[in-house]
Task: inverse folding
C-alpha cells in the first residue's frame, strides 16, 4: 500500500505517519532522510545528489524518484509506504505515477489533512506563551512563510489527485484519535 499524506505545516502529518508506522508496520519514505542516507552510504544516486547539493542546486526529480524506486524494490516496504515530502509538484506527481506504473504499482491513497490556518497560528502563539523553550521556527511569521510555500508549490497537486479519484479529505482540526480513526477508515477497505 502506498499512501501520500498532504496538508500544510502543522496539520499533523508527522503524528499520523508515526501512528500508521506503529500500527501497521508501514515505512515512512522521507526524501530528505533518503538523500542523507544515500550520501552517507556512498550509493551512486547519493553521490550524484551530493555533487548537485554541493554546487548549491536542488536535487533533480529523477534522482529522488530513483531513490524511491530503489526503496520500493528492496522489499523493505512491503507492508506499506507513506511518502513524506514527495511529491511536491505536479511534475513530481506525474513522474511518480509513471515510475510506479513501470513497477506495476500505484498510489492507493492520497489523504489531505485540512486545517484552519488561523487556528494553527493561534496554537503557535499559545504554545509559545505556555512554554519556556520556544524553537526558532515556532513563530507565526515562520509558519506563514511555510504556509505560503505550501500554497505556491504543493497545494496545486491536490486537484491532480482529486481528478484521478485518489484524494480523500480528513478534518485535521479534530482530536488526534479522531483524525487517526478517519484515516484508518479510508485505508481500512484494503488489507494492511
Result:
Amino acid at each position: 500500500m502506498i499512501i501520500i499524506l498532504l496538508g500544510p505545516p502543522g496539520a499533523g502529518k508527522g503524528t499520523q505517519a508515526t501512528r500508521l508506522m506503529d500500527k501497521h508496520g508501514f515505512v515512512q519514505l522521507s526524501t530528505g532522510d533518503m538523500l542523507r542516507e544515500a550520501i552517507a552510504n556512498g550509493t551512486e544516486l547519493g553521490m550524484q545528489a551530493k555533487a548537485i547539493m554541493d554546487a548549491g542546486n536542488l536535487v533533480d526529480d529523477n534522482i529522488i524518484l530513483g531513490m524511491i524506486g530503489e526503496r520500493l524494490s528492496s522489499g523493505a516496504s512491503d507492508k506499506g509506504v507513506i511518502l513524506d515530502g514527495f511529491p511536491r509538484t505536479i511534475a513530481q506527481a506525474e513522474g511518480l505515477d509513471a515510475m510506479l506504473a513501470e513497477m506495476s504499482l500505484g498510489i492507493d491513497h492520497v489523504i489531505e489533512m485540512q486545517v484552519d490556518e488561523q487556528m494553527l497560528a493561534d496554537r503557535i502563539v499559545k504554545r509559545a506563551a505556555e512554554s519556556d523553550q520556544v524553537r526558532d521556527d515556532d513563530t507565526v511569521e515562520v509558519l506563514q512563510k511555510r504556509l505560503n510555500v505550501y500554497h505556491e508549490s504543493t497545494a496545486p497537486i491536490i486537484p491532480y489527485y482529486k481528478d484521478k479519484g485518489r484524494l480523500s479529505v480528513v478534518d485535521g482540526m479534530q482530536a488526534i484519535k479522531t483524525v487517526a480513526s478517519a484515516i484508518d477508515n479510508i485505508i481500512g477497505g484494503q488489507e494492511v
Q: What stands out?
A: Residues 73 and 103 are 8 Å apart (CA to CA). The first strand starts at residue 2 and ends at 6.
